[in-house]
Specification:
The protein has two domains: 1-175, no CATH class; 191-437. The protein has two helices and 40 strands.
Length: 453
């Protein structure tokens, strides 16, 4: 029998006072469960779930402040989620797991793989958790937060996800290839919002967020730093697509790489602020990237701000971005003539860059516009940031680029797609770029509410 909204209830978990023998019917603020696993599985064992005793559609699981040492899947596969719920939510009645205060999830010895997320589940929300992979133990080619098995309409919000520092608490061997904080493979309609994602360090195949075979996901209002790549929309396997993903209004700073679309269709990357990244900030290609739009991003002090890479780019648009204080604006080491690529550049702003573009040889901004006829409405001018020394890249009222870009995405939300808006991430000047509350950062748990291993 389907649960109605009226049947939904608030469930409680408290590591200090809870008892996992409490039934679903008897769970209350004064009779909570002890572990998050009990709420997710309906039992005390990942391998023996009991859906009738687990959180159901419409339920909100409130988890008291503390450190929770949980169990999970003994095999620890790369697509598994240790705290995978036994039930699905619905569009009108998702299942919400909500940390109240500072809630840290850690894995007991012998349990590896993803800690939280959704494996083949729908309409699950994880809200306000501290995930530190040093106390987990991701297996190869995955990370501590996993959305897999064609999970749909799930969310990770208001949380902190931190990578291992090169070792694990339990002494497990570490992996770097395709190591990521949040894995979508495959997963659809997932929302990753208002999180801090950091220290998933390494080369170009380590990422804060990595996607394979995943469609219609939104990554917004996050802070990402000290990652190999902040967001990597990576590969497509036979029989799958990777389309219509949106990356917007994030702060991407001090990573090696910023946002990369390697193999994807109809991707939107807009209103992100990227600064201090030591390699490529926006990397487009080199696999098949079709009809993706990279609009109104602000890029400051990045080693290589924009790389349109490879011959298989189809219908790419790079419009309305501000590129400032970098060694160059564009870099492509395997294409000698940018006109051979299907990339439209227009209405971009360039300021204080040492050189303009490298495509086998150096191209000046004057030749970019005059000889190559690219970015014919682009300008080389000081955009007048409010306080670049403090990383405040809003535009001053007197900025010369406040009415430069045709607003084809209606970024100012006025119902028009033909009016003019500013270049860069701050279109109205009032939007929030990065976390909407916070900063969301780990804090020590209160000793009175700690669940020990």
């Amino acid at each position: 029998m389907l649960m109605s909204v009226a049947d939904a209830k608030t469930l409680y978990v408290n590591g200090a006072t809870g008892n996992d023998a409490t039934t679903y019917e008897s769970n209350s603020a004064t009779s909570p469960w002890r572990t998050i696993g009990r709420a997710a599985w309906g039992s005390t064992s990942y391998t023996s779930p009991n859906a009738a005793q687990a959180a159901k559609s419409g339920d909100v699981v409130q988890i008291a402040e503390g450190i929770y040492w949980e169990t999970g899947n003994p095999s620890g596969g790369r697509f598994t989620v240790s705290l995978n719920p036994a039930n699905n939510g619905t569009a009108a009645s998702p299942i919400i797991f909500r940390g109240v205060g500072n809630v840290s999830i850690r894995m007991q010895r012998g349990f590896r793989g993803g800690m939280i997320g959704c494996e083949g589940r729908n309409y699950i929300i994880w809200d306000n958790f501290q995930i530190d992979d040093y106390y987990g133990g991701s297996t190869s080619d995955t990370g501590p937060v996993v959305f897999s098995g064609n999970a749909r309409h799930c969310q990770l919000i208001n949380s902190t996800v931190k990578g291992h520092p090169g070792s694990y608490y339990h002494g497990y061997p570490t992996f770097t290839m395709n190591y990521r904080g949040i894995s979508l493979e495959p997963a659809h309609n997932i929302i990753i919002r208002n999180n801090v994602i950091h220290d998933f360090r390494g080369a170009n195949n380590e990422a804060g967020i990595m996607m394979y075979d995943s469609n219609d996901n939104i990554v917004e209002n996050n802070l990402m730093y000290n990652n190999g790549v902040a967001v990597f929309i990576k590969g497509v396997h036979a029989g799958f697509t990777q389309a219509r993903n949106i990356v917007r209004r994030n702060i991407v700073r001090n990573n090696k790489g910023g946002i990369r679309g390697l193999d994807c269709e109809d991707t939107l990357v807009y209103q992100n602020v990227l600064y201090g990244n030591t390699d490529i900030a926006l990397w487009i290609g080199p696999d098949i990237v079709a009809r993706s739009r990279w609009f109104n991003n602000t890029l400051v002090n990045n080693a290589r701000p924009i790389v349109p890479h490879g011959p298989e780019l189809i219908g790419i648009q790079v419009i309305g971005n501000i590129v400032a204080s970098s060694p160059l604006a564009y870099d492509n080491w395997d294409t000698s003539d940018p006109r051979t690529q299907d990339v439209l550049y227009d209405y971009n702003v360039y300021h204080n860059n040492t050189r303009h573009a490298y495509f086998g040889s150096w191209i000046s901004f004057a030749d970019w516009q005059g000889v190559y006829r690219l970015d014919v409405n682009g300008v080389s001018v000081n955009p007048l940031f409010v306080n670049p020394g403090a990383n405040d890249y809003r535009l001053q009222p007197s900025s010369p680029v406040r009415s430069l870009v045709i607003d084809v995405l209606d970024l100012n939300a006025n119902g028009s797609t033909t009016d003019l808006i500013p270049a860069g991430a701050y279109v109205t000047g009032n939007e929030t770029i990065g976390p909407t509350v916070g900063p969301v950062q780990p804090k020590p748990a209160s000793p009175s509410s700690v669940t020990v291993e």
